[in-house]
Amino acid sequence: MNKINVLDQGYVRLVDVMGSDLTPVNAARVSFDKESTEMTDKDVRLLKFLAREGHSSPFRHAFLQFEVYAPLMVARQWHKYRIGSTHLEEQDSYDALEAWNESSRRYITEDPTFYIPAFNEWRGKPENSKQGSGDYVPFDVGNPATKRLMESVDKQLADYEWALENGICAEQARLFLPAYGMYVRWYWSTSLQGVCHFLSQRLKHDAQKEIQDYAKAVLELTKEKFPASLSELIK
């Protein structure tokens, strides 16, 4: 399995992997000029020790590359939890351990797709918090919410197509598109530690449900390649 569908039209695809559970083991053992060629109970105990004591650098020697297709509201939340940033006074910040390349509507005009929750997927406001969501709203609210969103998307999509047909450049025509529900596609390459940092934040019960669904997909795809490491790093 290298691809898991998420929401109505989204997905997470594991594109490439460098390393295995032995990678952090051998990275930690290099100080003693030791190397394992197959996983043993001793190696598992070492992984447990590294995870328990917060020795994260060995887990940065294994890498994963994902392709993600998700609504913009998910993409922007996801982007906040990248790690390894280095901030320089005279340069923009950059990520030394991660890479993120996203499709841009400055250059492409492929048919836009949008996330539209079904009538039974709309959630109400939480009772005791300023953010997040609560229980699902009743049918007499959810059903018109879906219809209103569909009508809004259709109207703005027609305006976008009108702009393109009348010679307006793609980078300005995209202003007509509804933003937060529009699907975007990106490549995310990061270390095993980077994956686990993202999962530790986005699998929490109070994380937005949509990004939780994507985090669960990332977890399942990563678990197939790094089962021992994931069992220790993600409790």
From TrEMBL:
Keyword Ligase: no
Annotated PANTHER family: FLAVIN-DEPENDENT THYMIDYLATE SYNTHASE
The entry's keywords: Methyltransferase, Transferase
Pfam families (UniProt xref): Thy1
Organism of this sequence: Paenibacillus dendrobii
Protein name: FAD-dependent thymidylate synthase
Enzyme Commission number(s): 2.1.1.148
Entry's Gene Ontology molecular function annotations: flavin adenine dinucleotide binding; NADPH binding; thymidylate synthase (FAD) activity; thymidylate synthase activity
Coiled-coil annotated residue ranges, if any: none
Biological processes per GO annotation: dTMP biosynthetic process; methylation
